[in-house]
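Reviewer 2 asked us to include a model.

Predict the structure of this chain.
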Amino acid sequence: MRSADAVRTGTDSKVLNLVYIAIGAALIAICSWISIPTAIPFTLQTFAVFFVLLLLGGERGTIATLVYVLLGAVGVPVFAGFSGGIGILLGNTGGYIIGFLFIGFIYMLFSKFFKKSIVMKIAALVLGLAVCYAFGTAWFMHVYMKNSGEVGLFTVLGWCVFPFIIPDLLKIALAVVISRRIEPVIRY
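Predicted model (structure tokens):
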């Protein structure tokens, strides 16, 4: 039989995990509202995804990202431009938002199977970002061609990926620096 302290500690841990996940999802939402408007807006939501994964770890960070995507899917205005709804996810750029989950899954797998060094964490984020780009680009091409006609791969990459590579790599670097500063004061 478990003692009251053991039960309380387990419950406290679960509550703390839920709080961290909720804060992570909220941070992603807030960062998605900070944007430079272009055809596909430059936002800080990818920074927030990287930061949440680095700070909360693969499992909690991925769940926080999933909560963010689900909140947007049901209509809460958590996406760029204070938008939300399933229509955003089914639209041209929805694949990139769903692709955030791939970043989380890859980060989680790297966390489970590889040494938790900063190099491995960065490698997981970069690989996850590449998969997010690939999934989002395939999604964009499918939706765009269904609605507007043929478009070439390099045209879509020029619209949706190439302009974002350097900013996203800088976001990874910034997320690493900030998470390393904050991590010692966070109670896990």
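The longest strand covers residues 35-36. The domain at 8-185 is CATH 1.10.1760.20 (Arp2/3 complex 21 kDa subunit ARPC3). We have added this to the supplementary material.
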